[in-house]
């Protein structure tokens, strides 16, 4: 993608907070992109970043097999900020000392600025920071100086002014560091000299231009699911390629209640988009027969989608491009295809299920955006709140909300239960306040009593979380009367269910979806 805005490159050493670093940079209207820790300096240079941030990580630089970056990165003449592990790596690289801390720090600490410097500019007195480390810098590298310290970390922040190299032992990207946003903003704006010109207006303008250039006169097909991402993308694509766009809605049998009818009503009749509806339920359910492993489900669904799209492209004739609403978290969580030291969390169907020799060329304009940024793009394009604020729905649909085998019978149970969950949350006017709320069908049955008779039926779990971008999430403390109402309705209205439970786990350590 051609970029007319400044970029900050982030090297990922496996920190659970790497995505937060990216978000904090973007909050200052500067674009950020995450790279694997071992990316070559020449590849970084191609992106022409204004600055580089080295993330934290779980490893110890004291060991030879710990992750390292290309040393040439330090010779690019680009300002660098090392966070936690990143600071320790910087110290080690330039001959400083890193040892196991006598007192490991996990939690709050008070940082005191020792010397005037641009990184900690504006911090007054002692400021609260968040520590999470077992090693510490014990000896400064040559020509570095201490610019901040805490009670247990004499070298909590360091600077090499000539090369514009900075390190912080704490995590400025987390909300627990009270001046964290200011510190990151100081680095990217004052030290790196980046222009805060990353806005959704600039993104829409450049994305449309790049799509137009990439597709030429070729026809484009969009996989339209009706969710926020594909809905917003449909309007962006129409702006870029106009009548060369055809949207394909695939009823794969894994959708929520009434979804097919809603898609036709909203996009074909209201927005007058060139929309083709394909009934592929039999093919999807047949391919998923007896499949239990969630990774296999996702990859099978991805392959089935591509099979349908290629078939439709052939029928339409002249289709060269397939557009998808892939987001940045999809790439990050599908870590095997992203290329970092973190483990694969789960493969997303739109990045992990594509055949090696696909006949259509992929267009993914949102693959570097977070969900809330896509919502802003939607607002920029004039989409109504009804679409912009729709809760996320997984690409593999209800298949990953059914734990175990996916059958039509189990899908019907889940669809009815899920509809009740959404209806009751909307009735309480909580839908917009929740990131995702849904039902999950568990692979177990429990004993119950209905009408004085013993039952042995299914269990439904309810999941509701709050989040900013889906990378981290906390469970929602739903009102007890709401939970009671949902439970009562599901047990009374959904045949085959006699028990309802509520999921109170956060991400991490859990994921939002169960599979």
Topology at a glance:
Blueprint: E1 7-12, H1 18-26, E2 31-36, H2 41-46, E3 51-54, E4 80-83, H3 85-93, E5 97-113, E6 126-139, E7 145-149, E8 157-160, E9 165-168, H4 180-191, H5 200-215, E10 219-223, H6 228-241, E11 245-251, H7 259-270, E12 275-279, H8 281-287, H9 294-316, E13 319-323, H10 328-333, H11 335-338, H12 349-352, E14 361-363, H13 371-380, H14 385-388, H15 408-427, E15 436-450, E16 453-466, E17 474-475, H16 480-493, E18 497-502
Parallel strand pairs: 1-2, 1-3, 3-4, 4-9, 10-11, 10-13, 11-12, 13-14, 16-18
Antiparallel strand pairs: 5-6, 5-7, 7-8, 8-9, 15-16, 16-17
Name of the CATH first level of the largest domain: Alpha Beta
How can the largest sheet be summarized?
Answer: 9 strands, mixed
Report the span from N to C terminus.
Answer: 32 Å
Per CATH, the architecture of the largest domain is 3-Layer(aba) Sandwich
How big a fraction of the residues is strand?
15-25%
Count up the helices.
16
What structural class do the secondary elements suggest? Answer: alpha/beta
Helical proportion, percent range: 25-40%
Poorly predicted runs are 335-349, 351-356
Radius of gyration: 25 Å
Shape: globular
Nearest-integer average pLDDT: 90
CATH superfamily of the largest domain: HUPs
DSSP E strands, number: 18
What is the strand arrangement across the widest sheet? 2-1-3-4-9-8-7-5-6
**Whole-number tally of structural domains:** 3
CATH topology of the largest domain: the name is: Rossmann fold
């Amino acid at each position: 993608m051609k970029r007319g805005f400044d970029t900050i490159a982030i090297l990922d050493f496996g920190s659970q907070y790497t995505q937060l670093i990216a978000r904090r940079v973007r909050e200052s209207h500067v674009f950020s992109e995450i790279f694997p820790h071992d990316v070559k300096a020449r590849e970084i240079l191609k992106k022409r970043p204004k600055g580089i941030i080295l993330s934290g990580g779980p490893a110890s630089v004291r060991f030879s097999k710990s992750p390292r970056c290309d040393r040439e990165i330090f010779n690019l003449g680009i300002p660098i900020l090392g966070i936690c592990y990143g600071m320790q790596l910087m110290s080690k690289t330039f001959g400083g000392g890193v040892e196991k801390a006598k007192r490991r720090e996990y939690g709050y600490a008070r940082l005191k600025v020792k010397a005037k410097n641009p990184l900690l500019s504006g911090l007054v007195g002692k400021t609260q920071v968040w520590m999470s480390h077992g090693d510490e810098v014990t000896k400064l590298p040559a020509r570095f100086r201490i610019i901040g310290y805490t009670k247990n970390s004499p070298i909590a922040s360091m600077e090499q002014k000539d090369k514009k190299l900075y390190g912080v032992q704490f995590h400025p990207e987390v909300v627990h560091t009270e001046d964290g946003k200011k510190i990151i903003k100081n680095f990217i704006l004052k030290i790196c000299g980046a222009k805060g010109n990353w806005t959704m207006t600039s993104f829409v303008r450049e994305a449309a231009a790049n799509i137009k250039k990439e597709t030429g006169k070729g026809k484009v097909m969009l996989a339209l699911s009706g969710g926020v991402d594909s809905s917003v993308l449909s309007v962006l694509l129409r702006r870029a390629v106009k009548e060369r766009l055809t949207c394909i809605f695939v009823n794969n049998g894994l959708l929520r209640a009434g979804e097919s009818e809603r898609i036709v009503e909203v996009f074909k009749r209201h927005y007058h988009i060139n929309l083709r509806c394909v009934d592929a339920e039999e093919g999807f359910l047949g391919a998923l027969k007896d499949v239990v492993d969630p990774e296999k489900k996702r990859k099978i669904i991805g392959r089935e989608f591509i099979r349908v799209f290629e078939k439709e492209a052939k029928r339409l004739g002249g289709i060269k491009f397939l557009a998808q609403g892939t987001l940045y978290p999809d790439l990050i969580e599908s870590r095997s295809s992203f290329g970092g030291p973190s483990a694969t969390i789960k493969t997303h169907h739109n990045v992990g299920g594509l055949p090696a020799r696909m006949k259509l060329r992929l267009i993914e304009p949102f693959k570097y955006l977070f969900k809330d940024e896509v919502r802003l793009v939607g607002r920029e394009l004039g989409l109504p709140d009804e679409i912009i604020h729709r809760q996320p729905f997984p690409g593999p649909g209800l298949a990953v909300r059914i734990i175990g085998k996916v059958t039509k019978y189990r899908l019907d149970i889940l669809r009815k239960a899920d509809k009740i969950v959404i209806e009751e949350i909307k009735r309480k006017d909580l839908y917009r306040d929740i990131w995702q709320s849904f039902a999950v069908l568990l692979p177990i049955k429990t004993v119950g009593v209905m009408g004085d008779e013993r039952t042995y039926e299914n269990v439904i779990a309810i999941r509701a979380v709050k989040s900013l971008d889906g990378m981290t999430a906390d469970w929602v403390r739903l009102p007890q009367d709401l939970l009671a109402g949902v439970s009562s309705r599901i047990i009374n209205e959904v045949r085959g269910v006699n028990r309802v439970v509520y999921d109170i786990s956060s991400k991490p350590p859990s994921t939002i979806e169960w599979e």
